[in-house]
Amino acid sequence: MDPINGLSQITQILRQKLSEHTKTQKKSGSSGSHASTSDKRAEKPSIQEIERKIAERIKALSDEELRGKKGSQIFVETVIAWEFGEQLLADPDFADFASDVVKTLHEHPDVKDKLGKMLTSLQRG
Question: Does residue 34 lie within any of the structural domains?
């Protein structure tokens, strides 16, 4: 699997989950720091830089950790911060949100398999 194609497909799922999360936050009256996302997009690193960042973070993981939730968590956190802005990392609900995204990804065997293959490819360089 081409890592960039896999990243695009999985980013689509992340966008959907973030949209759902944002709607839930608005309904509950919670105020996050989502407003400046468009400002951060101008400074967004290239997809190749993100691939290198993910590869660095997953380098020391075992195969089991890589294909399990640990590798997926690293991927999700990195891609969300890249796609929607680093300010999301400071959101108190971010860890739970990222875990929910990982759970959703792992509920779909084909997506989980593609993610695992992509992470393995990134780890091996």
Answer: no
Number of neighbouring beta carbons within 10 Å of residue 114: 17
| Residue 39 counted as domain residue | no
Name the residue with higher pLDDT: 96 or 21.
96
Are residues 101 and 17 in contact, defined by beta-carbon separation less than 8 angstroms?
yes
Question: Residue 23: is its pLDDT beyond 80?
Answer: no
What total number of domains does the chain contain? 1
pTM, rounded to two decimals: 0.69
Residue of 124, 43, 125, 24 whose CA lies nearest to 83: 43
- Burial 40-53, CB ≥16 within 10 A → b, else e: beeeeeeeeebbeb
- The whole domain housing 91 covers 1-8+45-125
Domain membership flag for residue 29: no
